[in-house]
Amino acid sequence: MKESRLLQRFINNEIEETTLMNRLGKDWDQLKEIAYTDPDRFGNLLRKLSLPNRRRFLIQVFNLGSAELRLLLLGKYSRSASTISDLSNPLKAGRRFSNELLAKFAILTRVPFDYVYKNQIGRNRWDYKSFDFAGEVVFSIEEIKDRLMFATGEYRQINGYVLESSDGQVYYLRLERRTEAIIVDLYNPDMIQMSHFTNLLKATSLTWSVFINQSVVPGYWHWMFIGAEHESAIIRIKETEFKSIQHTMRLC
Predict the structure, then answer these.
(1) Which residue, among 190, 192, 246, 189, has the nearest Cα to 214 in the 3D structure?
(2) What is the DSSP code (8-state) at residue 26?
(3) How many angstroms separate the CA atoms of 22 and 248, rounded?
(4) Hey, how many other C-beta atoms are within 10 angstroms of the C-beta on 133?
(5) Which of 8, 20, 92, 100 has a CA positioned 20 to 30 A from the CA of residue 180?
(6) pLDDT tens figures, 191-213
(7) What is the pLDDT of residues 16-33, one digit of tens each?
(8) What is the C-alpha separation between 213 and 244, in angstroms, rounded?
(9) CA distances from 10 to 2, 27, 50, 205 (A)
(10) Measuring CA to CA, how many Å separate 50 from each of 95, 120, 184?
């Protein structure tokens, strides 16, 4: 398709970024298809973009409207629409945002902090800097249990958590609550913590599917869990947002 060839030409250095953005217009379907089917290619595309357009692409891929993004980044009572519009505005590229706001944005979009903070990405590796700035600290895996509930209202709820366990280990989680499903990213489990976490999920009344998801950083994978009352909701999410996943397991 036209947009797919356009994106590939940009990746291949055949056209400039301004040409890409001018020709892409507001049709983002092919961009989303790349993000959902080929994380390596999508990561390469992100790294080639300037910072404002990289943020803009992430907003589009995660279907984040201005009102929802403002709620997720600034809270329920914020009315600062300009902050959200400036985030991906090339004319506002010099505006400084707090590390906490950008860290929340990185957690939302499953990218390292530098992807939303720096124009040029140097060392392309996964880290947990975003959780240091914006992760809520909990001290036992059981504290997550009370948060395993569906979202109410119009929008999703997405938070990052830093689990500081009694044995001195630190673990990082992204918890997304939707009206019909819960999605959990567990970024760095060991076998013991993984067992504790899966037991916690199995103790709920939900059906859970588990798989390993590839990030935009080459070579970095992490565990993901999708829980819902009906398996049809899990299938729908996997078929639309995680098309690159080949193998999944069901927690029994």
Answers:
(1) 246
(2) T
(3) 39
(4) 19
(5) 100
(6) 888 888 999 999 999 999 999 99
(7) 999 998 888 777 888 898
(8) 8
(9) 13, 16, 12, 47
(10) 14, 7, 29
- Give the separation between CA 36 and CA 236, rounded to whole angstroms: 13
- Give the tokens for residue 16: 């400039």
Residues whose CB falls within 8 Å of the CB of residue 114, separated by 6 or more in sequence, listed in order: 121, 122, 129
> What phi and psi, each to the nearest 5 degrees, are found at residue 109?
-100, 10
- CA atoms in the 13 A half-sphere facing the CB of 146: 4
Residue keyed to tokens 């356009």: 6
Which residue type is seen at 13? N
What are the residues whose beta carbons fall under 8 Å from the beta carbon of 235, sequence distance 6 or more? Answer: none
**DSSP-assigned letter for residue 90:** G
Contact 148, 169 (CB under 8 A): no
* Residue for token pair 């903070």: 117
